[in-house]
């Protein structure tokens, strides 16, 4: 039996302790999107991914009060952006008051990503957003 050894996906992972800034997550993500060539072919998509990373890592640090593990996986169809934190409480979309300073993060993720989901796991939760690049 022959095995297909072609690459099916490429991924990167990074731990982000609470003491690290969200800026580090944004820069790290932008660097890997550059490796995919997206800064040249889909710059608006790169901005959407980076803003989503910023929101999800901020949520992990502020609401879960934990470090975050950021994982980017490109499977040829979708870039899966996963942020894991130590809280099992899944995020909810809220309709904040007009004067509220926060509470819009998941509304923003919903508007930017092609889809997202949150799921509890044994040691916290994963929030996963999917981004599909424009057809060439």
Automatic annotation (TrEMBL):
Keyword Cell membrane: no
InterPro entries: Anti-sigma-factor_SerPK, HATPase_C_sf, HATPase_dom
Domain Histidine kinase/HSP90-like ATPase: 22-129
CDD domains referenced in this protein's UniProt entry, alphabetically: HATPase_RsbW-like
SUPFAM superfamilies: ATPase domain of HSP90 chaperone/DNA topoisomerase II/histidine kinase (SSF55874)
PANTHER family: ANTI-SIGMA-F FACTOR RSBW, ANTI-SIGMA-F FACTOR RSBW-RELATED
Protein name listed in UniProt: Histidine kinase/HSP90-like ATPase domain-containing protein
Lineage: Bacteria, Bacillati, Actinomycetota, Actinomycetes, Kitasatosporales
């Amino acid at each position: 039996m022959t095995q297909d050894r072609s690459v099916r996906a490429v991924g990167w992972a990074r731990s982000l302790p609470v003491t690290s800034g969200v800026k580090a997550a944004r820069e790290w993500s932008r660097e890997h999107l550059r490796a995919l060539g997206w800064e040249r072919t889909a710059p608006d998509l790169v901005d959407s991914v980076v803003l989503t990373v910023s929101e999800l890592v901020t949520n992990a640090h502020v609401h879960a009060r934990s470090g975050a593990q950021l994982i980017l996986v490109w499977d040829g169809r979708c870039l899966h952006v996963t942020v894991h934190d130590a809280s099992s409480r899944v995020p909810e979309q809220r309709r904040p008051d007009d004067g509220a300073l926060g509470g819009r993060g998941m509304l923003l993720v919903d508007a930017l990503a092609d889809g997202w989901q949150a799921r509890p796991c044994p040691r916290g939760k994963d929030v996963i957003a999917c981004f599909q690049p424009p057809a060439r």
